[in-house]
Amino acid sequence: MTPQPGSLTPQKYLQLWLTWLLPAVAIFFLCMMVASEVKGVRFYWPAEDVLRFRLDRVLGAAVVGFALAAAGVTLQALLRNPLADPYILGISSGSSVGVMAWMLLAATWKGDGILRWFLEQGLIAPAVAGAIFTCMLVFVLARPRRGGGGMDPLTLLLVGIVVSAINGAVLMVLNWLSPAGVKSNLINYMMGSISNDTSPLAFWFAAGVITTAYLPILLSARALNVGSLSDLEATSMGVNVGKLRTLCFISASVMTGAAIILSGPIGFVGLICPHITRVLVGADHRKLTVAAPFCGAIFLMIADTFVRGSAGAFSLGELPVGVITALCGGPFFLFLLYKRRGVTG
Question: How far apart are CA 59 and CA 200, in angstroms?
């Protein structure tokens, strides 16, 4: 993860954006044309009566993949750990705790009026709060007691796994407390899937929050190159490591929380896509903060379209996309862990 600074002219930067934006747009239209039927998969532009549902589904996958990959590449840079990911570090599960608690409160609240509307539409607040709290908790617990030097990757990984396990236990308690009618919705949500009936207000609000949180990361890309060095080296080069970490940690947590609203916890997108783009464009975060999010959008659009198409082709019902990303990300994570063991062992 050694940064590779070099000249990046405005023309090259624009070319970088187009290089990743155009394939993402092409994949978007291809995914829009995939239709699942009993006899198999067909390709045609959706009719007007299903256009909105297909658009919600594919666009939702693109936004969620974009956010998770952007959060992943940011956390890997800040923590100097190639295994960092919102899912592995427990940030996704922390956000899910906030969402599930809020959904349980909304389902059991007997009142009406403005508070009822807020409980139904205000999921973004507990999602973001849960993500930020978990991110900061992992960071504080993994930080060395004495100043100087970065966090040990193994310690960080273990803290994230333990915090994620605690969040998982809390989620099981909340699910146990849920009424029968709410329990099935919560279980489907926790499996991680892109909904095609998300309200336009919730979708565009979440997309706006993700965009707002992404901008500070994009503007901090050059500082992330320096921040990937040790704290002492980064400080000597004029980077305020404390402010950089705080800003980017909050931004990554906010993006993760907003993505959780649209899909539930989907794992490993923030782990796989930064590594793919690091191979393709190098370790310069001025490029990675552009390439990785678009790679995440492409990856999740393809994965969600696969589960949507296979539902009709094999007559087995629709598999949650979170299962597909876990099947891809689990072995990928073990491979990265094995490589690090070979380097450090």
Answer: 12
* Mean pLDDT value of segment 269-277: 93
For residue 312, being part of any structural domain is answered with: yes
Position 329 in a domain: yes
Beta bridge partners of 35: 42
Residue 86 contacts by C-beta under 8 Å, 6 or more apart in sequence? 68, 71, 72, 75, 92, 131, 252, 256, 270
Token representation of residue 265: 């916890």
Print the domain residue range for 323.
50-344
Residue 345 DSSP SS3: coil
- CATH code at 269? 1.10.3470.10
108-136: average pLDDT: 74
- Residue 8, domain member (yes or no): no
**Residue 40 within any structural domain of the chain:** no
Amino acid at residue number 202: A
CA atoms within a 13 Å half-sphere pointing along the CA-CB vector of 72: 35
The phi, psi pair for 296, rounded to 5°, reads -65, -40
Q: Tell me the pLDDT tens digit for each residue of 142-172.
A: 877 665 555 666 777 788 889 989 998 998 8
Q: How many CB atoms are located within 10 Å of the residue 139 CB?
A: 20
192, two tokens: 């991680």
Count of domains forming the chain = 1
- Judge contact between 50 and 192, C-beta under 8 A: no
> What whole-number distance in Å separates Cα of residue 161 and Cα of residue 214?
26
- Residue 279 has φ and ψ, to the nearest 5°, of -70, -35
Contacts of 142 (CB under 8 A, 6+ apart): 151, 152, 155, 156, 159, 160
